Each structure stands twice: as C-alpha cells, then as structure tokens.
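Question (not urgent): is this output format expected?
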Amino acid sequence: MRAGDSAYATLLAEIQSGRLAPGAVLGEVEQSARLGVSRTPLRAALARLIADGLVARVSPRMTVVTAVDGDDIRALFVVRRALEETAARLAAASSDAPSFAELADAFDEARLDGDAARDAYYALIARFDQALDAAADNDHLTAALRSVRTHLVRVRGLARDQPPRLAASVAEHALIARAIATGDSDLAAHATHVHLHNALVSILESIESAPSSAPTAHATTREGAA
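Got this back:
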C-alpha cells in the first residue's frame, strides 16, 4: 500500500472510531512523525479527507476534524433515505432479487447475545449492503452510497449502544430483504424508509442524551443499530 493510502486509511479509521474526535488538530509535522510518512503523502491523505468532509483546513499546515451535530446528521439521512430507498426499489426489480431470501432468513435467525453474535450480525449487514449495491447495478448510485456510508460509520460511533434498537434493526432488515426477495418494490422502499426513520431518531436521542463533555467516549465502528 502506498504511503498516502496508508495514512488516509489510518486517519479515516481514527476519525470514524472517535479516536480523533471532532475538533482534534492534525498538524502536518506531528502527524507525519506519528504515522511514519513524509509530508507529501500526508498532504495527499489530508486532501482526500477534506474532500470527504471529515476534516477542514484552518491554516496552510494544519487541519482539524470537523464537528458533527444534529443538523449534519439530519442532512446526511435526507441523502441516505433517497439513495437507499431507490436502491431497494432497483434491487426488488432486478434478477438478483430472489437471492435476498437467504439474507432475510439470516436476519430472522440473527442473535445478539454476546460480542461474537453481534459481530456476526454486523457482518451480515455488510453482506446485505454489498448485495444491495450489486442488485441495484448503478455505479453512480453505488458511489454516492459509498460516500454516505463513510460518514455513517462516524455517526454510528457517536451514538451509544441501545440493545432494544439493535433488536428492532434486525427485524427491519429482515423485512426489507424479504420485500426485495419477493419483488415488492413498494414494500422494500417503504420498509427502508421506516428503518431509516427509526435509526435517525435513535441516533439523535443517543447523542442528545450523551454527556456533552465527552461526546465520543463510547465510540465504536460497529454498524448495527443504524
């Protein structure tokens, strides 16, 4: 992996996980030394993060991690809703639709008791997203979803664990997958809409109820409840 790509991957993971919190200063000298790369690949990595909207330049040699607030999250979900509802409709009308029956069964059988079970559930969601992208078969839509998901990992990390929401998310994903499998485009889109509404409400409630002095204290890259 090239030095710039490695630096980008490391900084991205740290921002998404909350290890680099909103407002964290990323000085070129300090980050070059910490990551073991020269200034040129570091600048390339920071340029990519700026394009992602995850950091902002405040001086020629310093950038900061951008903040995330309720308005940002609501705006992100407006885009997410439009993209994922469209993807669900396209998937339900595709020749790949029947394959989602296996995913629906897997969601029905998913368990959340213990870290290993939850890790398996998060992996199942990743499989569902990959299948959705493949079935939608639209490179522009997939590219837009990839950008949204980059921010979603960070948003999910700002929310605290909520077991009841996680359990509800399992059932919601099962319904979406089943609707796609049966070719019901309207139900697939509606079920996606309901799922995203519930996810947004949960995330906003989690953030608003978290201690303001440490908004990222419980950060995680797991992707279940949303």
